[in-house]
């Protein structure tokens, strides 16, 4: 039986809302929806591009802390608050995931706070690496 491990960024939101930044279960890592907060300063950048970069940075750091990396990502879900943001975030997502090409979905929706413009969730599966 695999051991479940919970990871945290130390964000106060995790305790308040009762979730983990990520859950590792066996060879799987499930990273919660991640918004564009700069967790070092607890600030939210204005632009969707900078928020996207922050999301990806937090996700990559979380995956690394869990013993995974971006190439392990097999599923990505993107949520943006405005259709106009799609063309702004696609190039940034392409830089991060262009060679990895996980199964992905993007939706246009409202997020928890008005300053949030994007949220990204990923699932990773640890696989043997071939060099």
From TrEMBL:
Q: Which Pfam families match?
A: Ribonuc_L-PSP (PF01042)
InterPro entries documented for this protein: RutC-like_sf, YjgF/YER057c/UK114
Write down the superkingdom of origin.
Bacteria
Q: Which SUPFAM superfamilies does the protein's record reference?
A: YjgF-like (SSF55298)
The name on file for this protein is Endoribonuclease L-PSP
Write the lineage as a comma-separated list.
Bacteria, Pseudomonadati, Pseudomonadota, Alphaproteobacteria, Hyphomicrobiales
């Amino acid at each position: 039986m695999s051991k479940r491990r919970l990871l945290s960024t130390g964000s106060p939101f995790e305790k308040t809302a009762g979730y983990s930044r990520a859950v590792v279960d066996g060879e799987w890592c499930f990273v919660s929806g991640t918004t564009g907060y700069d967790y070092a300063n607890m600030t939210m950048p204005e632009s969707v591009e900078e928020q996207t970069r922050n999301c990806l940075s937090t996700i990559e750091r979380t995956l690394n802390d869990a013993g995974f990396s971006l190439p392990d990502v097999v599923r990505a879900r993107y949520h943006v608050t405005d259709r106009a943001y799609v063309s702004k975030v696609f190039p940034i997502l392409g830089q991060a995931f262009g060679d990895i090409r996980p199964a992905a979905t993007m939706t246009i929706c409202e997020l928890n706070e008005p300053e949030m413009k994007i949220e990204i969730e990923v699932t990773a599966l640890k696989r043997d690496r071939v060099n």
